[in-house]
Structures are given as C-alpha cells and as structure tokens.
Amino acid sequence: MAAAGASPFRDRTSEFASLSQTLRRIGGNAPAPPQSQPNDPIAASPDRSEFNKKASRVGLRIHQTSQKIDRLSNLTKRSSIFDDRSKENEELTALIKNEITALNITISDLQTLQNMEIADGNYSGDRVVHLTAVCDDLKNRLMNVTKQFQDVLTTRTKNIKAHENRKQLFSTVVSRESPLKQPPSTTVKEPPPWSSSSDSSGANPQPSVSTGNMVQVGNQLRYALPQ
C-alpha cells in the first residue's frame, strides 16, 4: 500500500513539454539533404552544363557555315560573263575556309576536355556514352559541311573555265565583225601593156623597139613591112 499522504499520480509535465519541443523540431524543419560524394554523377552537373553549352555553340556555328556555303553555291550558279561576281565569291570563300578551320580546332578542344573529364572518373557510364556521341555528331556534321564546300569549289572552278572560254569566243566574234579592225583594202591596177613612162616635161613617148613584125609607134601598134 502506498504511504500515507503520498499522491497516487505522477507529474509528467516536464516530460510532455520536452516531447512537444522534439515534435515541433521534427515537423518544422526538413531533414538536411545528404552531401554529394565526389564520385556522384550529380556533382559534375556544372561541368556537364558547360560542355552542353559549348557543344550547342559549335553546332550553331556549323549551321551558319552551311548557310554561307549555300549562298556561295547560289552566287556561283548566277555568275556569267555579263554578271561577274568573282570578288564577292572570293571574299565568301575565304570566310568559309577560316570558319571551317576554327571549327576543327574548337571540336578538337571540346573532345580533349571530354577525355580529361572521363579520365577523372567523374561521369557515369551513360554520361560517357552521351559525351562521346555529342562529339562524334559534331565531327560528322563538320565533315559533311567540308565536303559540301569542296563540291561547291569544284563547280565554281568548272564555271570559271567555261566563262573564260565564252569570253574568248565572244571577243573573237566581235573582232571579226567590227569594221574598225578590218584593214583597208588596196587594189593595185597594172598599167596597160601599151602605156609607157613619160618624162617630167610631158613630152610624147618615144617609139619602142620593134619586135618581130610588130612595131609600136606612140600609142599604136603597126605591122612593119618586110624588107
């Protein structure tokens, strides 16, 4: 039996207050996220984003270069001996060559960055496959653009030769048909056989020596009588 004067109930007010504070802390504050480990693929998200940005810029530049090649092709087709656009063609050709060279260097640098990141082991297997596919796609696109440019240059060379041949033919035809380039025709009339030279005083010509039974007297031919 309980001792006289002792209460049969236990005061748990302090325990209840402590429990309430604990519940408030649990319900009011979300648990802290776990720290990413160095080998976690999520930790490499900033690098992945930078790679994607660079790859997107390279892809855009390849597309712009392809558009310039299409423009060069159209200029080559429209050129003629009466509409010579050789200067514009040469400037655009030089610009495209420089862009293709720069794109080759940029893709090479991007692939080097990819290989370094893969060697560090910061990417998962799927991410490595994705990076490799992106680099291969950019290289293939640039290769196709380069071939397209070479085909346009080949066509342009053929057109230039054809234009030169037409220019030469046109110049030859104009030269033949132009009256200014024709030499004046001169006809030399031979004097008649009975004409003879006269002296400066205007005297009558002397009879010529007889030939056979013919004798020339002045401007007349007469038969000589046989002796």
From TrEMBL:
Region called Disordered, residue ranges: 1-56, 172-227
Keyword entries, A-Z: Protein transport, Transport
Record's GO cellular component terms: membrane
Biased composition, class Low complexity, residue ranges: 195-208
Superkingdom: Eukaryota
Transit peptide as UniProt keyword: no
InterPro entries named in the record: SNARE (IPR010989)
Polar residues bias locations: 209-219
Protein name (Swiss-Prot/TrEMBL): Syntaxin-31
Species assigned in the record: Phtheirospermum japonicum
